[in-house]
Amino acid sequence: MRVAEKRHGSQGVALVIVLWAVSLISAAMFGLAALLQRQLGQEVAALQNARALLVAESGVQMALNPGLFPADMEAASRELTSRLQEGWRGPRGGPEVRFEVKAQEFRGEEGKMNLNSLLLGDRNQARRILTNLFAGWGVNATTSSAVIDALLDWTDADDMTTGTDESTEDYSRVGRSGPRNGPFQKLDELEQVRGWPELTQEAREGPKAVNWREKFTIFGTGQLSLMSADEDVIEAWLDLNPGAAVNFIRARPGPDLMAGTQDDVVNMGLLPPSAFNATNRISTTWGDLWRVTSTGSVGGVKRTIVALLSRNPPMVRSRWVAEEVQP
Question: What are the extents of the domains in the chain?
Fold first, then answer.
């Protein structure tokens, strides 16, 4: 009996050890499977990201076509999306592929004010133009004057302060770097200028809900293209009264009455005679510097590329990847 009991006891211990070993191996296998699944998920995500970037790049390459104008972009986007979806479809279908360049996301960059050229040129002229622009946005005159002082001080070459602007030490006191004492190197740098966030908030919350990023650039020749500039920018740039460019803007779409097409026209006769005093600072053509924002989507993963390009000859001058499309 004792021998049998010992045998049964040994078998019981062995069974426990086996079960424990099986449990350990199972846990390890489950852990390995989870790790592999996570790695596979990361690889799929990386692949989808790369594909989405390629799709977004298609929009940039499409925009290099000199035969396409802003109004053509949405139809061209749909056509290219259809072709990409068809080309990437496998035996079992495939992820949804989509890319989009909206009409308002393909613009002549020279239709914006070149802030560096403006501020580094005639200071009185710069002050007058910016005062006109900010007043048209509904910005308080005191805020406007202080910010213009700060902008001039940011770009001039000396350490002297301008008007109501404050010194480098005062910037440091509020946790900002500045002034640069040189031209802006990127548009986002404007956020560091004293008073700029407050001014843009007033403009955004005002009756015209202005998005300041659509009004300024640091690229181009410094001439303003009347073919693509907004009404408020034209009036400020040419020192015109508010509303003086309304008829000009209405006639600009040309015979087809559709803005952003080949028959758009600049009719200087619809602007006040004083506009002819600024002919050296304006252009009546589209210009050859364009900004395109192209968004690609593959399997729900979206990536956006913003590019500056010329089309004569076709050339991408600069590009960067954005996490999301700016409103």
Answer: 2-107+290-322, 108-283
Percent of the chain with pLDDT strictly greater than 70: 75
Model pLDDT for residues 237-276, shown as the tens digit of each residue = 999 999 999 999 999 999 999 999 999 999 999 999 999 9
The radius of gyration of the chain from alpha carbons, rounded to an integer in Å, stands at 30
Tell me what pLDDT residue 326 has. 40
**Count of beta carbons in the 10 Å neighbourhood of residue 156:** 18
Q: Assign a CATH topology to domain 108-283.
A: Ribonucleotide Reductase Protein R1; domain 1 (1.10.40)
Task: Choose among 261, 295, 245, 301: nearest CA to 96.
Answer: 301
Stated length of the chain: 327
Angstrom distance (rounded) from CA 215 to CA 232: 9
Please give the single-letter amino acid code of residue 265. V
The pair of three-digit structure tokens given for residue 35, joined into one six-digit string = 């790790």
Rounded to a whole number, what is the largest CA-CA distance in the chain? 122
- Distance, in Å, from the CA atom of 325 to the CA atom of 295, rounded to the nearest integer, reads 8
Distance of CA 60 to CAs 29, 296, 322, Å? 46, 11, 14
Structure tokens at 213: 């990023």
3-state secondary structure of 43: helix
Q: How far apart (Å, rounded) are the C-alpha atoms in residues 80 and 54?
A: 13
Q: How many CB atoms lie within 10 A of CB 218?
A: 18
DSSP 310: E
Range 35-54 average pLDDT:
66
Cα–Cα distance for residue pair 294/313, rounded to 1 Å: 21
Are the C-beta atoms of 276 and 95 separated by less than 8 Å? no
307: β partners: 292, 319
pTM for this entry: 0.79
Cα–Cα distance between 249 and 259 in angstroms, integer?
Answer: 10
